[in-house]
Here is the input.
Amino acid sequence: MGHTRLGKLSSTGERAQVVALIEGGGGAAQLPTAAITAAECRLNPASEDRGPGETVCLLSRLPLPAGEESFDTALRSAGLDVSDSPGLLDVVGAVSEAFDRPVNTNGAVEPE
Here is the structure.
């Protein structure tokens, strides 16, 4: 899964060092260190992306409105833009819209 979105892998930089170690019979200590360094170079910029964190936060708040007397008000408090008496598709649409909201540089979801 996800392999179709990977695209062409870079053959330069840290990844090239990992490949060279594999091809050259790199030692058990060298290969993991090179692989970790290569992964860090790709993952560190992703750690600044606040979108996944906001998504997890929203998903963790989503079940709470189900137990509330005023379902629509509770959904709005959870950050979803829904109408009065929302149905399943209304909630799904609101969740989808909330996932698509841009996140500003301070990590807060920007208002629409």
